[in-house]
Design brief:
The complex is a heterodimer of chains A (112) and B (115).
Chain A: E1 4-7, E2 10-14, E3 19-25, E4 30-38, E5 45-51, E6 56-59, E7 62-67, E8 72-77, E9 86-94, E10 100-102, E11 106-111
Chain B: E1 3-7, E2 10-13, E3 19-26, E4 32-38, E5 45-52, E6 55-58, E7 65-70, E8 73-78, E9 87-94, E10 105-106, E11 110-114
Parallel strand pairs in B: 2-11
Antiparallel strand pairs in B: 1-3, 3-8, 4-5, 4-9, 5-6, 7-8, 9-10, 9-11
Classes of the chains: A mainly beta (112), B mainly beta (115).
Chain lengths: 112, 115
Amino acid sequence: KNQVEQSPQSLIILEGKNCTLQCNYTVSPFSNLRWYKQDTGRGPVSLTIMTFSENTKSNGRYTATLDADTKQSSLHITASQLSDSASYICVVTSRNYEKLTFGTGTRLTIIP
Amino acid sequence: SQTIHQWPATLVQPVGSPLSLECTVEGTSNPNLYWYRQAAGRGLQLLFYSVGIGQISSEVPQNLSASRPQDRQFILSSKKLLLSDSGFYLCAWSWEGSSYNSPLHFGNGTRLTVT
């Protein structure tokens, strides 16, 4: 069964600090992995996509990594800002009918 | 540029009442359209998707139905709401054709509470 597990469920850090969110998946055959940011009461917005051959990809202060061998991904946020407070959702696409499997997200809270 | 509109933002309906949520996309033609439900502590669940007018695929049998009367309009409906229909409903679109590397573009959702 295709599954995506994210950790931690929630995280609180001080403004300016760094943090790393984790995503483990069992989706097969793998096509790509995408991280979304979802502000409270809003729809998710894509941050970055990673395909099988990519190890690292950055989008501003967000850096995603992918280890396709261990089926793990991480999202690293540098110098956090209050606006980073949101849920971060990991989504893995399978090559079988392009099925998407969503993680339950990590709720990140940045405090001043 | 493309935009997606979803309304209403919040809705409180009694059990047994009908439901109609509407979603429209601007700035693109023949998009793939989706309805998702997001429950607390659970990942997004795909309810319906459509690759063209009148073409609806259902992922989960339930009390809901979807229709696509126009190219860029997607409607989620129910004849009689259940308490279990409460949740956050998200409409999304993606470029037509292969979606391997095409992101989903979500609306801002409708918070439905069935009382």
